[in-house]
Specification:
Structural class: alpha/beta
Number of domains: 1
Number of strands: 14
CATH architecture: 3-Layer(bba) Sandwich
Shape: elongated
Strand content: 25-35%
CATH superfamily: Ribonuclease E inhibitor RraA/RraA-like
Order of helices and strands: HHEEEHEEHEEHEEEEEEEH
Radius of gyration: 18 Å
Oligomer: single chain
Number of helices: 6
Distance between the termini: 35 Å
Length: 199
Amino acid sequence: MAFTNYKNLLLTLNTTQISDTDMCSVMLDKQIRSYGSTSKLIGHAFTVESNGNYHAVIDAFNKANEDDVLIIDNKNSTFAIAGELFATEAKRKKLAGIIIDGYCRDIEGVYATGIPFFAKGVTPKIANGNAKWKLQKKITCGGVLVNPKDIIFADQNGIVVIDHQNIQIILHEAKLILDKENEIKEQINSGVPLSELIT
């Protein structure tokens, strides 16, 4: 399925419906939360193992493509790996967003860019390590294994990682779940108690 097709379908859904499907879609640690735009984030994973070195993210910007999601394992560093300048560059590159298993900074500026931006927390000090980094390798982010080109879908409920090989089945199941939820809402609004609709 082409990217634009499943992106359009995902825009009609929430991560809640995806996580309710029977297929194996996994959710990142709930400590990783939104610090940017409330828009849905949909794109292919561009993986970064930064090892506490912000040059890893700059290198990733140079190599990532439009609609990619930078998904960063900052290896337990207590320093920020990205902030306003990085969010601004992500916007220029037309990336789908940034997700950090680690810390960020410049929250007001990040939010102003309109880029979906997720992190574990905030700190003012930028990482400046000189460790070597890895791009486009399997990483662990938020307790979940993420492969390059996995489909990343995030909203204000959380972040799910979808194996691209299962995307059509997952989208079909999620759409059925959404339809059922809408049917239940209509019945509630017509006066039927929820207890009679959910067993």
